[in-house]
Write a structure and sequence with these properties.
By secondary structure, the chain is an alpha/beta fold. Helix content is 47%, strand content 17%. The N and C termini lie far apart (76 Å).
Length: 334
Amino acid sequence: MDQWLKQKKALWMLAIVFLLWMGSGCDAHSGKEDKGSASSQKGEASEVIRIGYQKYGTLNMLKARGNLEKRLKKLGYTVQWSLFPGGPQLLEAMNAGSLDFGHTGEAPPVFAQAAGTPLLYVATTPPNPAAEAILVPKNSPIRTIADLKGKKVALNKGSNVHYLLVQALEKAGLKLSDIQPVYLPPADARAAFEQGSVDAWVIWDPFLADAEVNGGARILMDAKGLPKQYGFIVGRNGYVKQYADVAKTVIAQLNKVHQEIHSSPDEAAKLLAKETKIGEEIWKRTLSRRGYGVFPLTKEVVDAQQRIADRFYEAGVIPKRVKVEDAVVVIKGQ
């Protein structure tokens, strides 16, 4: 009987030791998966930052250079890049929680705020009024914005050119309801434009430059002379607040790329042509008409963005008013 009790006691001891060992193993594993413990994993590149980019923005140049990956690896991160046809699609992904950072024009964040997307304005880029335009075929009888009345106009809904179209129509005494908007992403819009399925196309570079050179297009009107439209680096609210070190690194590296492009545009055109499969001459034209630099948001920028948001609401394009200032974040040391 004593022998049996000793054996039973030994088995219980072994079971306890095994359970303790399993518990410590599970704790170690959960530490690796903990999103909040990135600083303890420096050099292991175990955290992932998800960045959305477009063919137009300079994030594609940052991706091609590979410098951001090197910098963030030291902080314990890897970078996952995702290409989007436009800002609205990029911010839809952010709203779904599958994106942490991105670069868009002025209109997409307004639409996203109105839809409840948890975004933050992190930094701004200069206006590029010559880099977006309303196009018509070269031989089109359309000569003025007023001639667009009743016509089919293709655009990417909620993109920067949406505001261009609203403003252009207003200057000509028209409203969106006076034309037939056809909402298409850039590739589909170009096909419709070249096939004659639409009468005009509102688009941005490098698609604009390509359509001018290779698509038989004529500029009816660009954004010069209209209220300033800035570009924005945006981030997912919870991510930016938790990982300010990442946000600061992204902004610094992107600003560096801006300066490199500005000082060596021909070299940048070569690299971008390789990265995007869009011709080098198209990129030279694109880079010649854009501004450079990445800056903190000033009151002037926020006020300009607020005017755009108010105009969209007044035109009935977004369902509710948005307050831009509510989504602005200041990154210390930016």
